[in-house]
Design brief:
Number of strands: 0
Shape: globular
Number of domains: 1
Oligomer: single chain
Structural class: mainly alpha
Largest sheet: none
Radius of gyration: 15 Å
CATH architecture: Up-down Bundle
Strand content: under 5%
CATH superfamily: Hemerythrin-like
Number of helices: 5
Distance between the termini: 31 Å
Length: 135
């Protein structure tokens, strides 16, 4: 059972970002499925690395796209990215220290963050991007 099912409601109206969001959802659902099957620890290293690396790549790509069109909400977007990156790093550090109790907390954090990210701050740039010819 997927933790998040991608639907059009999550679309930000920019194909490149939607494609990356879909990939992030897939990684989160992979991690969730592994944990449900009791394989969390055996696959968490690679999945957590993939998810973390791809999240940072996504933030970089999104920032570059928003800078290219002088998006007025860029400062707020950057602040959100920094805060979410910091929180993700904390979970990774806890994982590396052997804190297995963090798995459910990590899933809840990632689920909430990803939904909030797509439905919140990212939805705000849809009209701006589309008005600048980016779909």
């Amino acid at each position: 059972m997927a933790l998040i099912k991608w639907t059009k409601k999550y679309s930000v109206g920019v194909k490149a970002m939607d494609d990356q969001h879909i990939k992030l959802v897939e990684f989160l659902n992979e991690l969730h499925a592994a944990m449900l099957k009791g394989r969390g620890q055996s696959v968490t290293d690679s999945l957590l690395k993939k998810l973390t690396d791809y999240t940072l790549e996504h933030f970089t790509d999104e920032k570059a796209m928003l800078e290219a069109v002088t998006y007025p909400g860029l400062t707020k977007q950057r602040e959100e990215h920094r805060e979410e990156s910091r929180k993700l790093e904390e979970y990774v550090a806890r994982y590396k220290q052997g804190d297995q109790a963090m798995y459910p907390q990590l899933l809840l954090f990632l689920d909430k963050w990803l939904r909030d990210h797509m439905l919140g701050e990212d939805k705000l740039y849809t009209a701006w991007m589309n008005d600048h010819g980016i779909r």
